[in-house]
Amino acid sequence: MSKPKKTVIEYRNYELPMYFPILLLTGDRWHISDVKSGKLHFHNCLEIGICHSDSGMLEFNDQPVPFKEGDMTFISRNVPHTTYSDKGTSSLWTYIFIQPDEFLKTYFDDSAPYADLFADMQQNLQLIINRKDYPEIYAILCSIVDEMQEKAMNYQHSVRGLMLSLFMKVMRIYAKDAGKKSENKEVHENAIVISPALDYIKENYMMNFPIEELADLCHLSQTHFRRVFHEIMNTSPLNYLNTTRILQSCILLRTTEESILSISEQVGFRSVSSYNRHFSEIMGTQPSEWRHKMANVDRASILEYTGWMQAQNLSDKKE
């Protein structure tokens, strides 16, 4: 008996503006075809989607969930998923990519009320709601889109305020649904199990620590931890750690004039040659070349960023 085909999971990295980590993708180009992708993908940031037309399916691992016109989707980083429209249609979407922990960090630091709930949302949010049920959330999202398109005076402050209001409302929905997680434990169990490891890597990526330390945090044996981690993230813990280090080094490359050697040491690499090798594998270029390219990143197209794949056009779909 042949083994079932293994699901391919793609990592998509978005280079958001440093001091305003939010990105808007909207307009007629953002259609999702009816061709089901052969792979899932996950991001390094939270994805907010607004479906403007038609319907289809949004899959989380092997769990298909229908969507329709007027739906709003909230998908945390590290959550594998894919989207495709119903046969013969091409749903139109607006997407907002954001790093909430950076964008709203002054409101949700460790001492803030419900900081734990906000942190949990960064890892486990998979929410689909409709504008008919939540018209106030739809109105806030539309206002955010308008502000980011028009870029009127002090629009960044307006967007932050709107985004704070949005997250407060989404957090209330998330809190109400917390009890339902226990009813669907099999869907979320593994992702929750490795959350301590993901959080630890995020906070301590610059340190040298053994993988067994991550396994201990998750209360798993090393073998079981490596297997579960790979099943969820489609990569090994070490590769995920190195990817995190590289992405953090990108911040330093963009915002400082420190040497490549200094940056490689700050993010945890023991040698600059190891850093250069991993950087090239993940980003597709050398650190010095990437730094030069990112000098004009705010004027670059998202289609040039590592990992982005534009939705396939209906004219290109397979029969």
Overview of the molecule:
- The chain folds into two domains: 8-183, Jelly Rolls; 185-298, Homeodomain-like (Arc Repressor Mutant, subunit A, Orthogonal Bundle), CATH 1.10.10.
- It is 45% helix and 17% strand.
- It has helices at 100-103, 115-124, 135-150, 155-176, 178-183, 185-204, 211-217, 222-233, 237-255, 260-266, 272-283, 287-293, and strands at residues 8-12, 22-25, 31-32, 39-43, 46-51, 56-60, 63-67, 71-75, 81-85, 91-98, 126-130.
- Strands 2, 3, 5, 8, 10 and 11 form a six-stranded antiparallel β-sheet that branches.
- It is globular.
Describe the protein's topology.
Layout: E1 8-12, E2 22-25, E3 31-32, E4 39-43, E5 46-51, E6 56-60, E7 63-67, E8 71-75, E9 81-85, E10 91-98, H1 100-103, H2 115-124, E11 126-130, H3 135-150, H4 155-176, H5 178-183, H6 185-204, H7 211-217, H8 222-233, H9 237-255, H10 260-266, H11 272-283, H12 287-293
Parallel strand pairs: 1-4
Antiparallel strand pairs: 2-10, 3-10, 5-8, 5-10, 6-7, 6-9, 8-11
Number of helices: 12
Share of helical residues = 40-55%
How many β-strands, per DSSP? 11
Order of helices and strands: EEEEEEEEEEHHEHHHHHHHHHH
Distance between the termini: 29 Å
| Secondary structure category | alpha+beta
Tell me about the largest β-sheet: 6 strands, antiparallel
What do we call the CATH topology of the largest domain? Answer: Jelly Rolls
Give the CA-based shape.
Answer: globular
Q: How many separate domains make up the residues? A: 2
Radius of gyration: 20 Å
Average pLDDT works out at 82
Reading off the top of the CATH hierarchy, the class of the largest domain is best stated as: Mainly Beta
What's the name of the CATH homologous superfamily of the largest domain?
Answer: Regulatory protein AraC
Q: Report strand %.
A: 15-25%
- Uncertain regions: pLDDT < 50 for 5+ in a row? 180-188, 297-319
CATH architecture of the largest domain: Sandwich
